[in-house]
Amino acid sequence: METSTYFGTDIAGMMHAARAEARRITEANKGDFVSDHKAILERLEAADLITDEEVQTLLDLYVLGYEAGEGKGDPQRAYFESRQVYDRLAAGGNASPVALVVASAAVGSFEISVNPEGSTTVSIARVSYGSSLAGIGAGIGSLLGGPAGGVLGGAIGGLIGGIVDDKKGKK
After folding, report:
1. Structural domain boundaries of the chain?
2. Residues of the chain with pLDDT under 70
3. 3-state secondary structure 108-148
């Protein structure tokens, strides 16, 4: 029977390792959120979960949301651009499942609110954690269960990122 290296690792140990790695990345990039996210994506690429081209696409998606949250971009425009990028990935037929789940989390970081009078508002947290935590979850999940574990871990990470965003408040 072939098992993953981390088969039998306790949850507390994985949480500690994830925190230690997150601290290492954050310290190395001195608070640059975009560089943090790029480091996460490069780890996924090194694990053969996403391609170099997908790294750039996912980084571009992150930057769209980041700039919209920082007030440097229009959240509504950024949302629709993000949807277009995700649609191209999904319809292209050759995107990795991990890239799709991280891209989906990036799109899911936006909140769409419809006013009863007919107007629509698009918002995103100042620094959204959906996409980054999807990437971290994919990395951890892949250690436990290969690419399928990466997809599940990415989905769970994206969901947790959305919860963190809601706790911090939308912009």
Report:
1. 30-124, 128-165
2. 1-19, 167-171
3. HCEEEEECCCCCEEEEEECCCCHHHHHHHHHHHHHHHHHHH
